[in-house]
Amino acid sequence: MTGSNAQAVLRLEGVGRVHGRGAAEVHALHPIDLEVRAGEFLAVMGPSGSGKSTLLALAGGLDRPSSGRVLVEGAPLEGLSRAKLADVRRRSVGYVFQSYNLIPSLTAAENIALPRELEGVSARTARAEAREVLAELGIGELADRFPEDMSGGQQQRVAIGRALSGDRRLVLADEPTGALDSATGDAVLEVLRARCDAGAAVMMVTHDATHAAWADRVVFLRDGRITEEAVRR
Ligand SMILES: Nc1ncnc2c1ncn2[C@@H]1O[C@H](COP(=O)(O)OP(=O)(O)OP(=O)(O)O)[C@@H](O)[C@H]1O
C-alpha cells in the first residue's frame, strides 16, 4: 500500500466482519487492509457470498467491523457517536444500492435534492444541483417526473444522481449498472469515472468485467479474502 494518509479518502485497517458465534460463526470478511485514494476508481469483484456487500457496508459506516478500523477522509468511524456517524454518512458518502429507494411522493429532482436540503443547503440550490446531475446522467427531462412514471433503469439513474449530488468525496456503488441496458450502463460508468477525475474516490461492486475495465484497480474477493489485485492504470 502506498501513499499518505491524507490522500486516502477511504482506509480500511485490518477490517473484518464475523456474524454469529461458535459453530454458527460466519467470516463474512477476514481482516483486510485497503485504501481508496482521491481520484481513484476501485472495482470489487468476486462470486456471490464472497463479502462484497459486507465490504461496502463497512466502508460506508452502515455496518461496524468486528475487528480493525475504517477511516473516511482520515477520521476513524469507530469512535463516532451515532449522530456524528450519520453526519459523515450524509455529507461525505454517496451510496448507490441495488434497490433504488426513491420516495414515491417526490419527483426525480426532489428525491435528489432532499438529502442536500437535510444537510442545510437551500431548497433552491439543492434543486438546481439536482437538475444539473440529472442532465449529467442524460435524463434531464425526467426532473419533474414521479418514480412510478419511470422505468427501472430511469429510477436507477435518479438514485445514482442522488448519491452524486453535492460534494461527496466517497461514492460506494453496489452493482449500479445492474438494471441498465449496456448503453445506459456505460453512461453511468462515464459519470462515475468523471467524479473520480474530479477528485472523488469510488468503490464499485460489479460482476461484469467490462464494467470493471473502467476502474483504475480491481480487487477480487473470495470467501471473505482479497485473493488478487489488478492495477489497470
Ligand atoms: N447478517 C448476516 N448474518 C449471517 N451471515 C451473513 C450476514 N450478512 C452476510 N452474511 C454472510 O457473509 C458472507 C458474505 O456476504 P455478502 O453479502 O457480503 O456477499 P456478496 O459477495 O455481496 O454476495 P452477493 O454477490 O450475492 O451479493 C456470506 O456467506 C453471507 O451469507
UniProtKB/TrEMBL annotation:
The keyword Transport applies. One of its GO terms (molecular function) is ATP binding. GO terms for cellular component: membrane protein complex; plasma membrane. Residues 10-233 form the ABC transporter domain. It holds the Pfam family ABC_tran. InterPro entries: AAA+_ATPase, ABC_transporter-like_ATP-bd, ABC_transporter-like_CS, ABC_transpr_LolD-like, MacB-like_ATP-bd, P-loop_NTPase. Keywords: ATP-binding, Nucleotide-binding, Transport. The keyword Transport applies. This is ABC transport system ATP-binding protein. It comes from Kitasatospora cineracea.
